[in-house]
Design a protein that fits this description.
With 173 residues, the protein is mostly beta strands. Helix content is 10%, strand content 41%. It has an eight-stranded antiparallel beta barrel. Strand 8 and strand 9 form a beta hairpin. The longest helix is centred in the first third of the chain and has 17 residues. The termini are far apart. 19% of the residues are buried.
Length: 173
């Protein structure tokens, strides 16, 4: 037992050193499910709907739709995939892909663009998006805010944080 004591002491000290080094850091958390935020800049303007689907493994897919005035149909205007992390109230996405409308070929206000005709618009020099994140106690909704220079889909949301509410994925399939 005496020969094992120094080894156990060293293992204990190493464990304590690595486990106590980041006491002030918030742990990375992951959520699961599909969340929806709707945004209408002003009455009489089209409605933007953004669905974010999260996995507990850290993957996220984002689909942004527009409902043009006079239409009831959701028109896909952008979709992206990447990995996300939530650390305290800090939210971050590293995009792997980002597809959107080729505005020189389509006028989204005249009808929906087929998904296979969206073009890759990922800017690899700025493929990370960061924002503030506040989850409600029951994980049914969260508040997500970006600075005005950040965008989600094709929308620059400068009107403060947007509320995302949990939905069933089948609502927009």
């Amino acid at each position: 037992m005496q020969k094992q004591f120094p080894l156990l002491l060293i293992i204990f000290l190493v464990f304590m050193f690595f486990s106590c080094g980041n006491e002030g850091d918030a742990p990375v958390t992951f959520i699961e499910g599909t969340y929806l935020a709707k945004y209408q800049p002003e009455e009489g303007n089209p409605v933007y709907s953004t669905f974010m689907t999260f996995s507990k493994s850290g993957n996220v897919s984002i689909e942004t739709f527009l409902t043009p005035i006079g239409f009831e149909e959701l028109c896909l205007i952008a979709y992206s995939e990447g990995v996300y992390s939530i650390k305290g109230d800090e939210f971050s996405i590293l995009f792997a892909s980002f597809f959107g409308i080729d505005t020189s070929s389509f006028d989204v206000f005249e009808g929906c663009v087929p998904k296979n005709q969206l073009v890759n618009v990922l800017n690899t020099s700025n493929s990370t998006q960061k924002g503030s994140f506040i989850m409600d106690d029951k994980t049914n909704s969260f508040l997500l805010g970006y600075s005005c220079s950040e965008t989600l889909g094709f929308i620059s949301i400068c009107d403060g944080s947007q509320t995302y509410s949990k939905v069933e994925a089948s609502h927009y399939d």
